[in-house]
Specification:
Layout lengths: L1 H20 L2 E9 L3 E2 L4 E4 L5 E3 L5 E6 L3 E6 L3 E2 L1 E5 L5 E8 L3 H9 L6 H5 L1 E5 L11 H8 L3 E4 L2 E4 L12 E4 L2 E3 L3 H4 L5 E7 L15 E6 L5
């Protein structure tokens, strides 16, 4: 009888601990390049080691403690961590595709990106691919490294998005904030970590401002 009571008590304790470890549900969505949903990415909860996969539009739901951490991983992408606290109800996680054409093929081949055209509409370059210091300014770097991109009257024109004669340049986004084109003259290439040139439907997240394409720039931080 004592043995049965011990087993029953252990089961109740385990159940209680499991409930306390998952104080609430956190919902989230996983993207790449800010707007392309990632399908089948692994989302792991640090406290419980529970792993769930994102659905066909990148959504997921997991049980978390009030102070927890999520780790998101997918082949071809750099793993991302997201800190959960009491105020977090929705986790939006943007995964970075590793440099190199092979990783782009992996992302499509493993089914992480269902719309291959959207992924192929994004050209990416980081300071591990090329020495940015060899360029005099950002205009020189962007025009020199991205096929079909031209600089006209201080604007970045992405071929295939709009006519060069229209005078409508691409939207410039620096560290998540839309900025004036003049930043490209003031920002030293040596301070840049990565550049993404987005055209076609992949720029829809930026609304009408992204109709002519978007140049997304990430600058170096203190530990880069």
């Amino acid at each position: 009888m004592k043995a049965l009571n011990a087993i029953f008590f252990t089961a109740i304790l385990f159940f209680a601990l499991n409930i306390s470890a998952q104080d609430r549900m956190v919902h989230g969505r996983v993207f790449t390049f800010d707007s392309i949903p990632l399908v089948g990415a692994d989302v792991e909860v640090k406290s419980t080691k529970q792993v769930v996969k994102t659905d066909s539009v990148g959504n997921f739901s997991v049980g978390c403690s009030n102070e927890d951490q999520l780790k998101v991983s997918a082949k071809g992408f750099t793993s991302a961590k997201f800190k959960v606290d009491e105020k977090i109800r929705v986790a939006i996680i943007n995964m970075k595709l590793k440099s190199g054409e092979k990783n782009r093929e992996i992302a499509i081949g493993y089914g992480y990106v269902l719309d291959a055209d959207k992924l192929n509409a994004v050209a990416t370059l980081n300071n591990n691919d090329v020495d940015f210091s060899q360029y005099s300014d950002m205009y020189d770097l962007i025009q020199g490294r991205f096929a079909g991109v031209q600089i006209v009257n201080g604007e970045v024109i992405i071929r295939g998005v709009n006519s060069i004669n229209s005078g409508s340049g691409a939207l410039i986004v620096l560290d998540g904030t839309p900025v004036d084109n003049s930043i490209l003259r003031a920002l030293p290439p040596t301070q840049v970590k990565s550049i993404n040139v987005i055209k076609d439907g992949s720029a829809a997240i930026y609304g009408s401002r992204g109709a002519n394409g978007v140049v997304v720039i990430e600058s170096k931080k203190g530990n880069d």
